[in-house]
Amino acid sequence: MNNNTDRTGLDAASEIAARIDAPTLLPGLYLVATPIGAARDITLRALDVLNAAEVLAAEDTRVLRHLMEIHAIPLRGRRIIAYHDHNADRARPGLLARLAEGASVAFCSDAGTPMVADPGFKLARDAAAMGLRLHPVPGASAALAALTVAGLPSDRFLFAGFPPNADGARDTWLRQWGAIDATLILYESPRRVKDTLAKLCEIEPNRSIVICRELTKKFEELIRGTAAELAEQIPDEGLRGEVVLVLDRPAPVAVDDDAIRAELRQALQDATVKDASREVATRLGLPRRAVYQLALDMKPGDERT
């Protein structure tokens, strides 16, 4: 008797939940952060927006539909519009048109915060250019989650996204961004982690790194060590799951003026004094003003400044 009563009560509650009228949202594009693993890592406001938005768009419609089912958010006749790298140019005009009509549009990437390494940038940029309202709905972010558990300095950090696939381009990319005096956060394919670590060993083998794998998921793992130590630990086939790398700030490098001048001579072959100074300062991790002054002393009165 009690079991039947409980079941009837649950069914009734579900029916009531499905019939609840969603509150009206202000017009505009809602950039909704979604969980990166644990489904309960979603904010109450995000659930309200998904319940109330007139138009739903997602990088992967199946992922958003499943998330809404988990949290008992009804579609109420709404369909979820796919918006991803392969169809963005075709799908964007329709979404912008609905926004221009005054609709509320919610966009979700596969996981985490939209605009962080996902296809939402052009949609947000074009909506802003049209004078339309953008609403942040903050929440989970793999980059910030990794930073919080890495145990590395967090007062100044840089999210650099994914390194290039090509070997030479990746080397240049890592040297450029890795020279900046900040904790560096980057995403990487689990299959290429070992290759990236090998490159980092060539640049600075003793740099402290934290590999954050499967954050908030069942097999969450943090692997700490230097670039050289981690390159030895990671199997040749790479890792499994989603990976975030967090790199400590680069070690200070003692560079004398002769070495800086040599770098500047090379850079000045293809750039102005100002641009060459910025490039060399970034690469060597030196104050930009000091390098610029040294460049001026080398080429006094250079008209390209």
Provide the fold topology.
Blueprint: H1 2-19, E1 28-32, H2 44-52, E2 55-58, H3 61-70, E3 80-82, H4 88-100, E4 104-108, H5 120-129, E5 134-137, H6 142-150, E6 157-161, H7 167-178, E7 183-188, H8 193-203, E8 208-213, E9 221-226, H9 227-233, E10 243-247, H10 257-267, H11 273-284, H12 288-298
Helix pairs in contact: 4-5, 7-8, 8-9, 10-11, 10-12, 11-12
Brief summary of the model shown:
The chain is of the alpha/beta class. The chain has twelve helices and ten strands. It folds into three domains: 9-140, 3-Layer(aba) Sandwich (Cobalt-precorrin-4 Transmethylase, domain 1), CATH 3.40.1010; 143-247, Tetrapyrrole methylase, C-terminal domain (Methyltransferase, Cobalt-precorrin-4 Transmethylase, Domain 2), CATH 3.30.950; 257-298.
Structure in words:
Pfam families: RsmI_C, TP_methylase. Its main location: cytoplasm. Residues 256-299 form the RsmI HTH domain. Its EC number is 2.1.1.198. Residues 29-231 form the Tetrapyrrole methylase domain. By secondary structure, the chain is an alpha/beta fold. It has 3 domains: 9-140, Tetrapyrrole methylase, N-terminal domain (Cobalt-precorrin-4 Transmethylase, domain 1); 143-247, Tetrapyrrole methylase, C-terminal domain (Methyltransferase, Cobalt-precorrin-4 Transmethylase, Domain 2), CATH 3.30.950.10; 257-298. Helices cover 44% and strands 16% of the residues. It has 12 helices and 10 strands. The strands form 2 sheets. Strands 3-2-4-1-5 form a 5-stranded parallel beta sheet, with helices on both faces. It has a 5-stranded mixed beta sheet with strand order 6-7-10-8-9. Helix 3 links the parallel strand 2 (55-58) and strand 3. The longest helix is centred in the first third of the chain and has 18 residues, at 2-19. It is globular. The protein starts with a helix and ends in a 7-residue tail after the last helix. 30% of the residues are buried. Mean pLDDT is 89; it is low at 1-10, 12-19 and 300-305.
